[in-house]
Design a protein that fits this description.
This protein is α+β, with helices and mostly antiparallel strands. About 20% of the residues lie in helices and about 40% in strands. The protein has five helices and nine strands, in the order H-E-H-E-E-E-E-H-E-E-E-E-H-H. The protein is globular. The mean pLDDT is about 85.
Length: about 220
Amino acid sequence: MGTPGTAIDSLNAALKCNIIPNQEYLLQGSVLDQYVEVLLHRLRGLCDNVDSGPESFHDHELCFTLRAPNPGAPMVLPLRVRRALDVPDAPWQLRYVGQQELGDKNRPTVVRSSIDMACSSTIVEFLTELGCRVDFEYIARGYMFRKGRMKITVSKIFKMGGMTSKPGEGVEAISQSYLVELSVLAPSGQDAIAEDMRIFAEQLRPLVQLEKIDYKRLGNLP
């Protein structure tokens, strides 16, 4: 009998077979509060599970960075930790999101590396021990729809309350609009997905205009 393969061996084999969803295709936009019900009605008609309706969520997300040990070094590893406030027993989620791929400027969507995994509530303590620091945190509350492999979320984003507040309490909306995201997680090399997303996004106009967001450009704004 051969020696059982290690977890790393299994992961490498899965990567070579291109079966791990390690890329995110993404479009983003926003809709004003007064029009969100119209958008939700449109999505109910376009998406799957029309009878059961969308899935609601109420999440707390912390955004960590692990910086390079030497001052001035450019390397920054972004990590996100999300937990469901409305489902206390659900696993926490750890997510790595990479930089936007440069690629073809005519590509319909943002494409970036993304790896998700379930974890326990001790993940915050673990990341802190590793040297990660919390850059910011927020509450996201809204609805999620599915259309095949596509996921559509309509989220109201809230600032956290004071130091003595529990997550979800004493929060304040950051704007008078909802964040709308259209995304697909897939193995690398499946760029045809981006065209399907573009076609779906066209059906949501003029209620919301889903676009590629240039994060580097945003980071250079004063």
